[in-house]
Structure to design on (243 residues):
């Protein structure tokens, strides 16, 4: 049902999931996510973990960013604990999995980033590498110690929606992860890889607009137009699907 407020809005409302509760019982999110959505012309709305009224939340939104953050619990995908796994948050895991499954079923415009991309893969039946360096080594660094971002190249499938959105097939990306997709869910297609073979992006073939990238486009979007285009395209799609 369209509300008077929705009728009066001139820009699409884009939800962004936040990190879980910290030691001070605060929900946080890096400001770069908000900045990128605003540059794209969207209005950001932060969604804290634990929200049970998923349908009601999506009813007022026009698009969604599944943000990065800590690791998903390995039990969710049949994995094993590893000493490098950190910031596991059952409240965030459960609520975001429900959110991911809902947006997939509803065909909701979504950009999934890092943890968000892993979340989409798990929601659809895929799994993860618990610690990527154990699999691909460290010739290509995906995160600097102890936990800092680093840039590396990514090659994108020229026939993908991702390439059409970014306007390039060879891009520099801000990488900030130690886990990545291992077995891809049947409903997803791999559309980008790092030089070491790590899966860097997937798309949902039957979804109207769902892009999932392993890197962090929000970190460089202010200076890299190709990365900003991911947010621009999400907002544009959300604008088209507003009630």
């Amino acid at each position: 049902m369209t509300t008077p407020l929705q009728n009066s809005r001139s820009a699409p409302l884009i939800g962004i999931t936040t990190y879980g509760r910290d030691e001070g019982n605060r929900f946080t999110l890096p400001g770069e996510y908000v900045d990128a959505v605003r540059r794209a012309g969207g209005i950001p709305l932060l969604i804290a973990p634990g929200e049970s009224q998923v349908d009601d939340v999506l009813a007022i939104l026009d698009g969604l960013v599944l943000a990065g953050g800590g690791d998903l619990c390995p039990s969710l995908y049949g994995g094993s604990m590893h000493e490098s796994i950190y910031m596991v948050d059952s409240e965030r895991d459960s609520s975001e999995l429900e959110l991911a499954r809902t947006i997939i079923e509803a065909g909701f415009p979504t950009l999934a980033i890092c943890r968000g991309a892993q979340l989409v893969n798990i929601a659809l039946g895929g799994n993860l590498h618990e610690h990527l360096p154990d699999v691909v080594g460290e010739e290509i660094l995906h995160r600097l110690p102890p936990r800092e971002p680093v840039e590396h190249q990514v090659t994108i499938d020229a026939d993908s929606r991702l390439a059409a959105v970014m306007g390039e097939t060879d891009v520099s990306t801000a990488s900030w992860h130690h886990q990545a997709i291992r077995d891809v869910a049947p409903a997803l297609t791999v559309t980008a890889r790092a030089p070491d073979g790590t899966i860097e992006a997937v798309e949902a073939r039957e979804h109207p607009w769902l892009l999932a990238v392993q890197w962090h486009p929000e970190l460089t979007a202010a200076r890299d137009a190709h990365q900003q285009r991911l947010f621009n395209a999400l907002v544009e799609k959300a604008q088209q699907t507003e009630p």
